Amino acid sequence: MLIAGFPAGAFQTNCYVVAPAAGEECVIVDPGQDATDGVDELLREHRLKPVAVLLTHGHLDHVWSVAPVCGARDVPAWIHPDDRHLLSDPAAGWSDTSAQLFGGLTLSEPDDVRELSDGAVLKLAGLELVVDHTPGHTRGSVSFRLPGDEVMFSGDLLFAGSIGRSDLPGGDYATILRSLATKCLPLPDDTVVLPGHGPQTTIGRERAVNPYLKEAAPHAGPTRGI
Question: Residues of the signal sequence (predicted)?
């Protein structure tokens, strides 16, 4: 398994490329602000051919470069339908004050947009990625799991020591706690979490030290794989 990434733009949003190995097809996760050069560099370095872009949610810092990345390689973008409108209306995902900063920014959907659903299994680039709908940061937030390799791309659901904010349009604190309880806590401790911002972590570490996972735990019910 090859997973490589870099923090893109002023928001330092983690963009990843994922492939079975160097020299093969890959998927790109969350190409954010000014991510095109970094994506191109990783593709050249590892001799990869992208077949899709996967979006954990529709916030601007995660989708900024999706149209040019998809257009340059003629590949589809995958996003949950509840966040699809943010591809062409990024200000809708921010507070009124923040939205004013992006009022002059014009984005558009890629030519080929496909919609994600909870529990779907995407068979792309020789990979099988499980889609978990994890609302709370946005209504259409998702995470992607590689179950055989115990890897989770958590987007802005779960960070090392923290979680995504829930005070923006479409966010809800009780909902994000339910997503943590039902989609994160049942996972094995050795599951590697690759978040949308900051360093990687593991479910076991977050179970032990993350106060938000501790708050979510009473809602989780029986756990498995611990």
Answer: none
3-state secondary structure of 116: coil
pTM: 0.93
Instruction: Assign a CATH topology to domain 2-216.
Output: Metallo-beta-lactamase; Chain A (3.60.15)
| Cα–Cα distance for residue pair 197/99, rounded to 1 Å | 21
List Cβ neighbours of 82 (8 Å cut-off, separation of 6 or more). Answer: 135, 138, 139, 140, 170
Number of residues that make up the chain: 226
Q: Are 145 and 132 in contact (CB under 8 A)?
A: yes
Q: Which helix (H) or strand (E) holds 162?
A: strand 162-163
185-221 as b/e: b if 16+ CB within 10 A: bbbeeebebbbbbeebbbbeebbeebebbeebeeebe
SS3 at position 223: coil
Q: What is the pLDDT of residues 9-51, one digit of tens each?
A: 999 999 999 999 999 999 999 999 999 999 999 999 999 999 9
Nearest one of 1, 35, 34 to 15, comparing CA atoms = 35
